Amino acid sequence: MKFNYFSILAAFMLLFTSCSDELETENIQEKAQAVNYDEIQVLNGRLYFPNKSIFQSYYAELREKNENDLAELLQRKFYSKDFYSLKPIVNEQTEEVEVSRHLAKIKSKSNKNGLQQKTSSTNEDLLENFDDLEDIFGEDVFTSFLNQDAELQVKDKVYKYTDTGLFIADAKEVKSLNTYLEKKQISKNLLEPTPEATKLAYIEENNPCGGLQQVQNFEYFIAEVDNAPCSGGGSTGGGSSGGSSGSGSSSSSGTPNAQLAIISNGLDQCSGAKPWLGNLFGTTKVCIDQYESKKRVKIKYYNIDIFLGYVIGIKTKHQKKGWTGLWRKQDTDEVALGVNSLTWKFTHPTPAAALLNYQPARIYLHNGKMFETVNGYYNSVFAGNIPVPNLPFANKVDFIIEVAIGAPLSPFNDEEDVREFIYEQLFNTAKGLLQSHSNRQLKKMGVVVTTQTSTWVQFYDFSESCTNCDKRENIIDFGIVTPQITYNFGTGSGGSFSISSWNFNFNNPSLTGMSAFGMAKRNGQWHGKRMVF
């Protein structure tokens, strides 16, 4: 039987991303001060970064900029030096010049880079393709770093992104790579698709399981394939949580959370469309609510591994179609992003029978205090000073709830069951501990629920909406390597919990589910979508 928790959701499950976390923004700024960006330049038509560290730092810094400042920077630093982005970022001042310049460059390259270039493509067709390209890579900053051949250079390596995957070549071997792609009939231009049969046959022959493989003198990468019959895994390491961000100002005078919950219930629901080219670099799902002729609200979930880095996040943005036909962000009265839960499921290779000896639940506060529940889930005792467990969003949450279910059969059929269980059994206990031991308002929490056969990991956010802004974005994790972690379950437990850790790859879980909404208010009317998958 389902728990009756919808009344609780109306009051609490409003996950509206706040303004940029000041501490995280300061960390990015401190890193930027120690890095010399003067060596970033346009080289042979590509953006050149002297090393991966500078690439990551510059990427993180530009992600924090609002679109007007970003458009001005790109125009001054790169576009004025004959660089052409795969998808240009523009503002009102640069739109006319840069959109026209970029479209003219695309048309001038007809019949040179692709397999099926159509000289009859209209500006409207190309602009729609621009919109789809952003969805392949999850967000627009990285897309703007790529040139129109979807290339950039880091040190002495050129990274070329195609609809068949990423190819990495020494800078002096780029001509050989292009010859190789032509021989294999793989398109060298993301605006021109490789025939589906050709693409699938190449992947099956050269990289059926995903990851990084050697093909001739080049390296070839696609994201790991779900449920592939392959052993081994990707590189390990961690990232830096990027935090919540938005362009514009946040204000407590926005619509109250409870009222936003009611409004969101009236939104149409969608499961999220995939990019028209598919996505070999991870998962992207998009819902769009277009209103009037040139305005829309776009909500997007993305979990992308571009090899040079990865990003997991969700965002809502309000956009206006400029006179050139390019969609760009536009300030509006209010923008809200609500995430009831974002869920990853990881299946255990062997049953975890020792869960029977583990305490029912643990609550790790952000300040290092850890509590264990006794006699069920409603009473808790202080168990020591233990850091928050290792998760991609560990440094963003106010607390993490860790639960062990020792029953032979799991009581959870899906992520909704897990969400209901947390709200019914543990939410109020954890919230009370946070208030009494840190005097801190709950904004974000994490959940880890382990059964004998699987582990469910969830992220919740209880922040506010923004006013006079154009987007709300919550970057769950952002880093330079694949988000594969070793999770130490039950650290410091007094029980005889024999399994101490599992490896979780957040780019390749057994299941990912989400319940969220994105909406924007303009002239007193709300527009948006509920995304459920």
UniProtKB/TrEMBL annotation:
Region described as Disordered: spans on this chain:
232-255
**From which domain of life does this come?**
Bacteria
- Composition skew (Gly residues), residue ranges: 232-246
**Organism the protein comes from:** Polaribacter butkevichii
Q: What is this protein called?
A: Uncharacterized protein
